[in-house]
Specification:
Elements lengths: L1 H25 L9 H5 L13 E4 L3 E4 L4 H7 L11 H10 L5 H13 L5 H9 L6 H11 L5 H8 L7 H27 L13 H9 L5 H13 L8 H10 L5 H12 L7 H16 L5 H13 L17 H13 L4 H20 L10 H10 L8 H22 L12 H12 L4
Antiparallel strand pairs: 1-2
The protein binds N-hydroxyamidocarboxymethyldethia coenzyme *A.
């Protein structure tokens, strides 16, 4: 894949020089102070890492390489007859910072197609896994299992020069991304569809082929949903659990498979990516209790019951965002266009109408607005993916694009092993006392 790789190299060299200059001339300049509250409070808001592929504004939401979601939906190339951008284009954008042409996207599609075959040893391992193993466990296991073929691990053993680390990391990334839709659909079909599998369609792009291999519907809108979904979930700057985990593990020069498997373990937490499954579970319980067309009053009571039981309202709140997530809005626009009369979508919309006010009255969540996970499940359900335990795997396939694009950059820029300083509570108390002691 000469083009994308050459393009990356053309961006890497000037970036290395830019960063060396910044570090040399301004390395001592402070960009963040850290309070004791932040030290105990999940390091919220501490600016202490670089992430080039995307950046998150609390009010505006995510920008991928400077482009908002409406902008990428408009500017990234689309497959013929499709209304949503190609995820291949998003990967190109994340890695290079440039919007690709349709032909450049096609080259990636072709390259991923060539690398997509799953090795027999992986199928054997998945077949030996109990079918009631959570799909995210199977997914992370599969990524870990593929580590056997890591180009980075092999080249490191051979003694590669550190300036070249990015090259095998790039190769591993391309191999992994090529295989993830096949891995995910294999897990889906094995777990829920009697172990009957659907061969890839070589005529389709990456996202459409994923939709095809799931085998739930022939509706072309589902292919477009998959493209949109894979574009929207790919990256959310560097501090979230899946992104930061991939960066952290990779900083020990663990290869892309180890780093991504760890990242997926983080994504599988209910406060992070697993929230998409929890949202659908919560909505299904709501509809079971209140019927298919609940009123606003009934939904409000259900939300209060959730809060009073000491549980979170899944899909609402965010550690950084302070407004409705534009990824939620993009999915809502898709629903309004393709499934305005869907019963679950109507419930999701009513929850959107009442939950923010209730969360504000409840007075705890700093952000009462919906995040990406509040919407995705109802779209997947509509097209026939009703096994909500599987939903986070979709998120994982997409998130791999962002965290691995950044991992190639990390190795290209020679970022060091991460090692922040921890302190004990005793140290904190002594520090407080030293600050309060009268100055001599
Ligand atoms: N429902 C009820 N309580 C909530 C809440 C929600 N949706 N969101 C936050 N809170 C509570 C917190 O649990 C916390 O309570 P305590 O003081 O008792 O610990 C308090 O409000 C303050 O939390 P916060 O500062 O507003 O939020 P955090 O940065 O600590 O956490 C979370 C952010 C996303 C984890 C949180 O909002 C949450 O648990 N939301 C529900 C789960 C969810 O949707 N997660 C997905 C987030 C997006 C994502 O990563 N997707 O992958």
């Amino acid at each position: 894949m000469a083009n994308l790789k050459e393009k990356f190299v053309s961006k890497l060299m000037p970036m290395r020089e830019r960063i060396q200059k910044i570090q040399k001339e301004h390395g001592e300049l402070k960009i963040s102070d850290v309070t004791i509250g932040q030290t105990y409070g999940g390091m919220r808001g501490v600016k202490c890492m670089i992430w080039e592929c995307s950046s998150l504004d609390p009010n505006e939401g995510i920008r991928f390489r400077g482009f908002t979601i409406p902008e990428v939906r408009e500017k990234l190339p689309k497959a013929p007859g499709s209304e949503e951008p190609l995820p291949e284009g998003m990967f190109y954008l994340l890695l290079t910072g440039d919007i690709p042409t349709y032909e450049e996207c096609q080259e990636i599609t072709e390259e991923w197609r060539k690398r997509s075959e799953l090795p027999k040893y992986l199928i054997d391992v998945l077949k030996a896994t109990p079918a009631d193993t959570h799909p995210m466990t199977q997914f992370a296991m599969a990524i870990m299992q593929l580590q056997k073929d890591s180009v980075f691990a092999e080249r490191y053993r051979q003694g590669i020069h550190k300036l070249d680390y990015w090259d095998p990391m790039y190769e591993d990334t391309m191999n992994i991304l090529a295989k993830l839709p096949a891995v995910a659909s294999y897990i889906y079909r094995r777990t829920y569809k009697g172990d009957k599998h659907i061969p890839a369609d070589p005529k389709l792009d990456w996202g459409a082929n994923f939709a095809h291999m799931l085998g739930v519907t022939d509706d072309p809108a589902f292919k477009d949903l998959m493209r949109l979904y894979l574009v929207l979930h790919c990256d959310h700057e560097g501090g979230n659990v899946s992104a930061h985990t991939c960066r952290l593990v990779g900083s020990a020069l663990s290869d892309a498979n180890y780093s991504l498997a760890a990242s997926m373990a983080g994504l599988a937490g209910p406060l992070h990516g697993l929230a998409n499954q929890e949202v659908l579970r919560w909505i299904m319980e709501l509809m079971e209790k209140l019927g298919n067309t609940p009123t606003k009053e009934q939904i409000s009571q259900y939300i209060w019951d959730t809060l009073n039981a000491g549980k979170v309202v899944p899909g609402y709140g965010h550690a950084v965002l302070r407004k409705t997530d534009p990824r939620f809005i993009a999915q809502r626009e898709f629903a309004l266009k393709h499934l305005p009369d869907d019963e679950i979508f109507k419930v999701v919309s009513l929850v959107f109408e009442v939950a923010p006010d209730i969360l504000m009255k409840h007075g705890k969540a700093k952000n009462p607005w919906p995040n990406v996970d509040a919407h995705s499940g109802c779209l997947l359900w509509h097209y026939g993916v009703k096994e909500y335990d599987f939903y986070t795997v979709f998120f994982g396939v997409s998130r791999a694009m962002g965290v691995l694009a950044q991992l190639i950059w990390d190795r290209g820029l020679g970022l060091p092993i991460e090692r922040p300083k921890s302190v004990t509570t005793e140290w904190v108390e002594e520090f407080i006392a030293s600050q309060q002691a009268p100055k001599a």
